[in-house]
């Protein structure tokens, strides 16, 4: 992390910079037997560890079908292919870019919808307002691990005859009404990249209740080859290696501990930040548990004293890494300029949250003292806001 001069005077609060995220892995001794087996047998792909991993995922997520795939984005793409989606796809604008990029890449039209002000997740009422005869599907997202109102979205999809896909990139560790994600809509696509609770480095998982979708994706991720080399349809390489599968299989045994740790750490952050003026938090949906893939605050400049961007710079100067998720939101990104006129002044909540959201350092094995120390630094910045605003604004 490149550091600017400390803004609170003297030495930075963090002499060793506080990393934004770290993957939580296992001691090498626990992983070595599988790695040795893969290397000595030469079975580095399409072996039994993938099958073992997929079976374990089915048990953990309580779903009939799970497929290890190269990444979550590719999983979304394959679900759209399996479902034969055409035309327009409703997506949240407040989401990671992959959600709507893959819609555009698939030759479909993303229709951006506003989010709820408190949960940050897609607003079901806004979904229904955007449905036209050209609409074929809805993609909803667990934002930072917080699920949307899935029941309401499923009712809308059924009412209008639409396909429903969950972008569950942040969903390992999430509970919806007490149950793990995985069995909603026509299918879900999870991520196991380095910032997730289940961090295999790269990789993803597709889950579904429908055998025909499972069978299609199982073949599609193998170039469409059923083993005969006489492909009935063109496919791609969407596989995940034995190394990733073994790592996922081992980490899956610890996933619940990771989720509980993150919820405890989120509680520490909240308790230590709740009395600072201008700081507010994402509301977790009732009867649900967030995975807390990220811990994110909203910064109200009028009450806090400086805006989100200056707080981010001030924290950087004190040795604390942050991310501005998700800024800009989808409908304001240059890649989607051709759609921009349609959304001017429409996605009010999305633009507000995008301009105020700041994700703080967070990972499953974080020591309890770190969020306490970061909260103290944020409190100091608030108390020195006028001075910091003057110095950082002048520097810019």
Characteristic terms for this protein:
396 residues; three-stranded antiparallel β-sheet; 40% helix; single chain; Aspartate Aminotransferase, domain 2; 13 strands; seven-stranded mixed β-sheet; alpha/beta; 2 domains; Aspartate Aminotransferase, domain 1
Poorly predicted tracts of residues? none
The total strand number stands at: 13
User: What is the N-to-C succession of helices and strands?
Assistant: HHEHEHEHEHEEEEEHHHEEEHHHHEHH
CATH class of the largest domain: Alpha Beta
Q: Indicate the CATH architecture of the largest domain.
A: 3-Layer(aba) Sandwich
The CATH superfamily of the largest domain appears as Type I PLP-dependent aspartate aminotransferase-like (Major domain)
**Roughly what fraction of the amino acids lie in strands?**
5-15%
Q: Helix amount, in percent?
A: 25-40%
Number of domains: 2
CATH topology of the largest domain: Aspartate Aminotransferase, domain 2
What's the Cα radius of gyration?
22 Å
What is the distance, rounded to the nearest whole angstrom, between the alpha carbons of the first and last residues?
18 Å
Q: How many helical elements?
A: 15
Strand order of the largest sheet: 1-9-8-5-4-2-3
Structural class: alpha/beta
Rounded mean pLDDT is: 96
Largest sheet: 7 strands, mixed
